[in-house]
Known about the structure:
Elements lengths: L1 E3 L12 H12 L7 H5 L15 H7 L3 E3 L6 E3 L7 H4 L2 E6 L6 H10 L3 E7 L13 E10 L4 E10 L4 E10 H7 L7 E6 L10 H12 L8 H16 L16 H20 L4 H25 L4 H36 L1
Antiparallel strand pairs: 1-6, 2-3, 4-9, 5-6, 5-9, 6-7, 7-8
Helix pairs in contact: 7-11, 8-11, 9-10, 10-11
Amino acid sequence: MKKALPITTDTCLTSYSFFSNALSILEAGNASRRSRACIDKDETLAPASNSANEYLPMFCNNFTTLIFGAGRPYVNFIAGVPYGRSVRKHLKHKAVKLERKDPARFVKERINENRYITVTFNVEYLANICIDREWYHEYLIYGYDDEAQLFLAVGYDVDKSCHAFSFRKLEISYGDFLKSLPKRNMKNELLWIDPEISAEAINLRKIKRDVFLFAYDILPFIFNAKVYRDFAWVLRLRHGGKKQDANSLRASFDMQHFRVLTEHKALMLRMMTELVPGSKAAEEYKSIRNTASLMLMTALKYNMRKKNKAKAVDDIRAALKRLRKDEPLVFRAFYKELKAHEKAK
């Protein structure tokens, strides 16, 4: 017997597992609009289905603001803390404990009930994942195949050549599934689409406020610029100063920072384009998005290089400096466009 629930790995956000897991379900359920590929290629905004813009307000209302964690220094969307509640509120979810006597049967029963289930594994024992150390992480199981003796899952894998994580489909054999389960119960969760949850409406007042705070440096309410400053400080602390040679630099960047920044710029560009059709500021913002993408690529090069690492760090710092300088100017122009567009309605 076998069964597979709808799933996609082409989601708008992949920087954190709670974004990736929830959106992989929502977008596969035809509940979400354009894919990451469309965003990156600047394709037209023609909806893929009648419900194509159902979750656009969720991104506009909740994902415009970035934060930088103090205790655990990570760049993140403010709406993603804690546990991505702004995404997960669009799904039904329920915490569960795996049945220890026969956990594989328990998971298959949930799939047969049309419930996706997250399971935490010690990834070191998953043969199809390129991580050879003890590391506990959750993966979303969406199907199974008794004939092939495997579960179908989505989650993170790593490219050893550049230390970058990717969100992709995976196959987990029944044997690896049992071998990699932690000895104690970890957090597991059932997820399924709730058709009764009403779509959000665009909160234009909040969006205008967020754009204004990005455009004008009014402390302590400015988030974006503070993120850039704190991130630049961490780069200096962890990856050395200009006078240090390449041997003193850390081996690799944590790519999560750069994925968040790149996704943020793509979503902001999409918001600007859809809220103000023909926006000139949106055209200018493409250079901001491209700068963030360049930072991501430079960080990948840093992770792959054995020499000249210091230059890559300097290039990333220079790109951060450009973002801090140029992005507020574009947002000032967009803020004026937004007010004029609202007045003209």
